[in-house]
Design goal:
The complex is a heterodimer.
Chain A lengths: L1 H27 L2 E7 L6 H20 L8 E7 L4 H13 L5 E3 L3 H13 L4 E3 L15 E3 L5 H13 L4 E7 L2 H17 L2 E8 L7 H10 L3 E5 L2 H14 L5 E4 L7 H7 L7 E4 L10 H11 L7 H20 L4 H9 L3 E2 L4 E2 L1 E4 L2 E5 L4 E6 L2 E6 L14
Parallel strand pairs in A: 1-2, 1-3, 3-4, 4-5, 6-7, 6-8, 8-9, 9-10
Antiparallel strand pairs in A: 10-15, 11-12, 13-14, 15-16
Helix pairs in contact in A: 1-3, 2-10, 2-11, 3-4, 5-6, 7-8, 8-9, 11-12
Chain B lengths: L2 H34 L6 H19 L7 H18 L9 H23 L14 E4 L2 E4 H23 L1 H11 L1 H6 L4 H23 L10 H15 L4 H21 L5 H15 L13
Antiparallel strand pairs in B: 1-2
Helix pairs in contact in B: 1-5, 1-8, 1-9, 1-10, 2-4, 2-8, 2-9, 3-8, 5-6, 5-8, 6-8, 9-10, 10-11
Classes of the chains: A alpha/beta, B mainly alpha.
């Protein structure tokens, strides 16, 4: 209780200071937009990417003359990778009078923030976290421009369907994210008439997948879908090769398979594995190549991840909404977000309602395949994909 | 070969090889318990230490993991010797709980030091032969797993030669049977006990080295293996080395076949149900002798 009071007092004091400072900046004429990300804590790696994306986005808007002549500026608050600190950050921004708040990585943090902001009638623009339940059922004040978790499953199952697969086997972890991707995959499989011959779930800490893989091998499915995080993805692929599972395609349904470390650690076992991801520089959207170059510069030479591109797109979409609203009034900005229809280097952004989602940008995921030790795009057709290599005809 | 039978044999062989690693971990635990009646709760953490040592040597000087055995073995032995000589032997034997708590504490120190030094993220090495397999009559087995299984065999044969063919081994067995009697016969039991603890830790470190090409290393990786090692040693009878070997193979086989024929979701349950059955029917373990305490 006492801790809560302290947080409250600190929050109130900093809010007053912020209100004061925003009142001052109103005279100098910059428009302040709220943004929350993980500057510190265990998600700081993603925070670094997002800060770079924010920087590139703000620079681009201001270079083009800002919003109706007024420059923009981000009020960036640190969530310290913690739910409560993220909420406190959202509260500070709500009290600072920003027209909208851009929300960051990790669904558990973002869900709480977005709901708080919605109650305060502050538009929340989610750019990175993918838990379905943020926009499903959603809220009038919550908008999301990145793809929800279901889309990981959709992209891979679409490839299975397009490759005329008749059967598939699945191995998935029991974590929240893995579960939502795996459950979505089962629904798509049913829709597409793909028979699921094996659905095996495992708890974190399992190191021996051989019995499961032997079982899958004996069923000889066309596709094998694996939904797991980094370490398990390498172990799974190594043991799949060891056991001699030979489906037509191995597909990885979660973050672990799309990281550069996957190729580095799994070596030749990673070859031909297909995985889903949100954004890659090979996409043919206007300005994608240029964005990649600028993000590399902002990151001091490091390779940008899709988190950076999403943060950039967040700034562009926010600036566009404020410009069309013609004011920083929250209700007008919310109405403007509803009619957003722009092309960005991250992809087109239109907030629509579909499949139970609300104010959700309906954007396809990208699929990449490891070919000769490198990720190459194979899906969707709009990226001018390379031909998919199959394990067997 | 009939594909169903082939799948059965492959699952069984892989299960037995995995069981061999459980046995290797279990032997160190069993050896220490047999001689000193100390349950070493830090055993899994010493295994993690072996893994990280291999990882470190590979990343810094590109030493092949199997060559790092030559370093892990003496280092593990020295560490164990030191711990018994300067920590555990000082506790006295008034309370059996004190040694248990001490090893638990040591385990926490080791795993937290690994966390501090290497971070919590799982790490592995990618050696050229990590994905190589060996095929015989349609049965496909990973080279690294095969080496781990054979390594267990070599370690066990070596330990048996040491225990039954050398003067040191005789002294160890004497100390296990009756420390006071051994001391009266001129055996330096303090040195013997330290040697045994050193051997036990060395075995855990060997297991860690053999596992790294197969698995990921993270500071708490030992927990799973400590649990397996307990099951293995109790299955075979605490302090009974051949029993630990059979216990390991049994556990590996049961887990693999259970996951293959029933469902992977209950993998740990198969081993533990078998374990409970053994405890119900033979409380002293598969090969344990009934101990009469005086």
């Amino acid at each position: 209780m006492r801790k809560l009071m302290i947080v409250g007092v600190v929050g109130a004091v900093s809010a007053m200071l912020l209100v004061q400072s925003s009142a001052q900046t109103a005279k100098t004429g910059t428009i302040k937009i709220g943004a929350i990300t993980a500057v510190t804590g265990r998600f700081a790696e993603f925070g670094t990417q997002q800060l770079a994306g924010f920087k590139v986005g703000v620079a681009e808007i201001n270079r083009r003359g800002g919003i109706n002549g007024q420059k923009i500026e981000l009020l960036i608050e640190d969530n310290a990778s913690d739910v409560n600190k993220g909420l406190a950050a959202a509260e500070r921004l709500a009290n600072a009078g920003v027209p909208l708040v851009i929300c960051e990585y990790s669904s558990s943090l973002v869900k709480a923030q977005a709901q708080y902001l919605a109650r305060q009638k502050v538009p929340a623009l989610v750019v990175t976290s993918s838990g379905d339940d943020i926009t499903k059922p959603g809220n009038d004040y919550i908008f999301r421009l990145n793809q929800p978790a279901t889309e990981y499953a959709r992209a891979l199952l679409n490839i299975f369907r397009d490759s005329k697969f008749k059967s598939m086997a699945m191995v998935a972890g029991t974590g929240a994210f893995e579960k939502s991707v795996a459950d979505a995959a089962l629904i798509f499989a049913k829709q597409y008439g793909i028979q699921v011959v094996e659905d095996q779930r495992y708890d974190q800490g399992l190191t021996d997948f051989r019995p499961v893989l032997n079982r899958i091998k004996s069923k000889n499915p066309d596709g094998v879908l694996m939904v797991s995080y980094a370490a398990d993805s390498v172990t799974l692929m190594r043991q799949a090769r060891e056991v001699g599972v030979k489906p037509r395609m191995f597909a990885g349904g979660a973050a672990g398979f799309a990281l550069p470390d996957f190729i580095k650690d799994a070596g030749s076992a990673a070859e031909n594995v297909v995985s889903a991801t949100a954004w890659i520089q090979e996409l043919r959207y206007p300005g994608t190549q240029k964005l990649h170059v600028e993000l590399v510069k902002a990151l001091g030479g490091a390779e940008p991840s899709y988190h950076a591109a999403q943060a950039y797109a967040g700034v562009i979409a926010a600036a566009d909404a404020i410009r069309r609203a013609g004011s920083t009034d929250r209700e007008k900005v919310r109405a403007a977000l509803n009619t957003t229809n722009i092309q960005t280097a991250f992809g087109p952004i239109v907030f629509t309602d579909f499949d139970g989602f609300k104010n959700q940008n309906n954007l396809t995921m990208v699929a990449e395949q490891v070919q000769d030790g490198k990720f190459v795009p194979v899906y969707p057709r709009s990226v001018v994909p390379k031909a998919i290599k199959f394990e067997r005809p | 070969m009939n594909p169903d039978f082939q799948a059965f044999v492959q699952t069984l062989v892989q299960g037995l090889l995995t069981g061999g690693i459980y046995a290797l971990v279990g032997i160190g635990l069993s050896l220490i318990f047999g001689v000193m009646r100390v349950i070493n709760f830090a055993h899994g953490d010493f295994l993690a230490l072996g893994m990280f040592l291999t990882l470190f040597l590979f990343k810094t000087v590109h030493l092949d993991p199997y060559f790092s055995l030559l370093i892990a073995l003496p280092l593990g032995f020295a560490l164990g010797y030191f711990i018994q000589r300067f920590v555990l032997s000082r506790l006295g034997d008034r309370l059996s709980e004190s040694s248990m708590l001490a090893t638990l504490g040591l385990g926490l120190i080791v795993s937290n030091m690994l966390l501090l030094g290497f971070g919590a993220q799982p790490q592995t090495i990618n050696v050229p032969y990590a994905n190589n397999t060996f095929t015989l009559g349609g049965i496909q087995v990973s080279i690294a797993l095969l080496v781990a299984g054979l390594g267990t065999l070599v370690a066990i044969v070596g330990l048996n030669l040491l225990l039954y063919r050398t003067e040191l081994g005789r002294a160890i067995r004497a100390t296990a049977q009756n420390p006071l009697g051994a001391e009266l016969q001129g055996v330096n039991t303090r040195t013997i006990q330290a040697t045994v603890f050193g051997l036990g830790v060395a075995f855990a470190a060997i297991a860690g080295v053999l596992l790294l090409p197969l698995l990921y290393a993270y500071p708490t990786v030992g927990e799973t293996f400590t649990l397996k090692a307990f099951v293995v040693t109790v299955l075979g009878g605490l302090g009974n080395l051949p029993g630990a070997i059979v216990g390991g193979l049994f556990l590996g086989g049961v887990e693999s076949l259970g996951s293959f024929y029933i469902s992977n979701n209950y993998r740990d349950a198969y081993g533990l149900i078998a374990f409970l059955l053994v405890l119900l029917l033979r409380p002293e373990g598969l090969f344990g002798k009934t101990v009469k305490r005086v």
